[in-house]
Amino acid sequence: MSLLFRPLFEKESSTYTYLLADVDTKEAIIIDAVDNTQQRDIDLIEELGLDLRYIVETHIHADHITSSCPLKQRFRNAQIVFGAANLITCADILIKDGENLNFGSYQMIAMTTPGHTNGCMSYIVDDKVFTGDALLIRSCGRCDFQDGSAEKLFDSIQKIFTLANETLVYPAHDYVGRTVSSIGEEKQFNEMIGDSVDKDEFMRRVNAMDLSLPAKIHVAVPANQVCGTKIMADRT
Ligand SMILES: [Fe+2]
Question: Three-state DSSP class for 99?
Fold first, then answer.
């Protein structure tokens, strides 16, 4: 039994897409795939002969458009997975906290981690956790749109921190080129919540983030609420 793991990067929005598969059965999942890089991802999945089963989103993104729907059209066995708190109809599976999905001998376990958006999920596979925009390397997601809540995000990150210190942390973004961290490392060094920052101080820090809105937010959020079908219509 062995796990194929391919981190992939989309440079315009600094998004990580993760492809995972059971090497023996070829059953695969992809997490947070992006429209700009959909052909690259399709080519890789086909080249490796993978059987894509789940197209997984950590949340409804505001900064890029997903390729969920185009991927599903290409890989007919695949189902689109979102957290159950997302009010969208394009998902095949609305997954709840603690539920899991199998690919080959591997399991992907869902964990609700709201705060950056109300529908944010993290997913655990083997010794890895995919934290979306809840926990970033040395940072965390913003909470100023899409029903964000710094208070909820604090509780969600504490929940993520109950994982073993050795668990590897793979976020949805990194803007300075880091690729992986660990729970133990983030508990110690995370600049928003590390070193036992309390909830009030965390909320103060999150609410003091001074960020402009993502350039694509007014296009990306509606497109992602229909799993990226809008962009396909626009291109025809
Ligand atoms: Fe996000």
Answer: coil
Residue type, 64: H
Using the mean position of ligand 1's atoms as its centre, give its distance from the Cα of residue 133 in Å: 5
The full set of domains in the chain, from first to last, is: 3-211 (3.60.15.10)
Instruction: Judge contact between 34 and 10, C-beta under 8 A.
Output: yes
99 pLDDT higher than 70 = yes
DSSP bridge pairs for 12? none
CA distance 56 to 117: 16
Average pLDDT across the chain, whole number: 96
What protein residues have CB closer than 5 angstroms to ion ligand 1?
61, 133
Q: Measure 116 CA to ligand 1 centroid, in angstroms.
A: 7
Is it the case that residue 232 has pLDDT exceeding 50? no
At 1 the pLDDT is: 87
- What is the tens place of the pLDDT at every residue in 125-170? 999 999 999 999 999 999 999 999 999 999 999 999 999 999 999 9
Helix (H) or strand (E) holding 9: strand 3-10
For 159-197, the pLDDT digits (tens) are 999 999 999 999 999 999 999 999 999 999 999 999 999
Residue written as token pair 């296009």: 219
The answer for residues whose C-beta is within 8 angstroms of residue 93's C-beta and 6 or more apart is 54, 79, 80, 81, 82, 101
What is the C-alpha to C-alpha distance for residues 197 and 194, in angstroms, rounded to an integer?
6
Q: How far is the CA of 173 from the centre of ligand 1 (A)?
A: 8
Q: How far apart are CA 10 and CA 66, in angstroms?
A: 11
Q: How far is the CA of 63 from the centre of ligand 1 (A)?
A: 7
